[in-house]
Automatic annotation (TrEMBL):
Name of the molecule in the record: Tetratricopeptide repeat protein
InterPro entries: TPR-like_helical_dom_sf, TPR_rpt
SUPFAM superfamilies, sorted: TPR-like
Natural source organism: Bombardia bombarda
Family annotation (Pfam families): TPR_8
Amino acid sequence: MGKRFEKALVLRQQHINSLPARAVTEVDINNYANAWHNMSIVLLSDGLYEEALRYIELAIRIRNSIGENPTFNGESELFKALALSVLGRSEEALKLVRSVQAEVKELSDELLQTVRVALLPFRFHWAEIFLNSGDMEAAHKAMLEVLKLRGEHFGVGGRATLDTYYMMGVIEQKRGNLSAAK
C-alpha cells in the first residue's frame, strides 16, 4: 500500500478527531470517505480485490452516514461491482451495475448531455463487468455505445478510442466471432 495514501487517511482522521462533533462538515466526511475510496483503487490495481471491497464498502458507509446519495457513491459502487465480478460474484456485480444504469436513465436529457463524457469510464467498466459475468450481448451493446461516444469526443485514433477497439476485439473473440475480433 502506498505510504502517501496511508498518510492521507491518517491526516483526514486526525483532522476529524480534532474537531468538536458539531463542527464536522459534510465536506469533511466526504473527503474522509474519498480517502478510503482512493485506497481501494490502489488495492484493486494491485489485485487485492477482497481487501479493496472492504475499503470500498467502508467509503460507502461513511458517505451514507450523512444520508444516502447515489451520486456520491456511484464511483465506489462501480469499483465494488468490478471487484465482485473479478471475484466471480457476478450476480452481485450485475445487480449493482443495473442499479447504477437505472439511475443514469433517470437523468434528464439536459443533464445527460452534460455528463456524457464523464460517464464514459462507467460505461466501459459496465462492459467489463458484463464480460466477466459471461453476458456477451450486454458487453457488446455497452461497448458499442462507448465506441460511438469515444469516437465522437476523442476521434477514431484517440487512445481512449483505441482501447475501446481492443476491448471490442476481446468481446468479439469471446462471442466466437474471430473475423470481427481482428
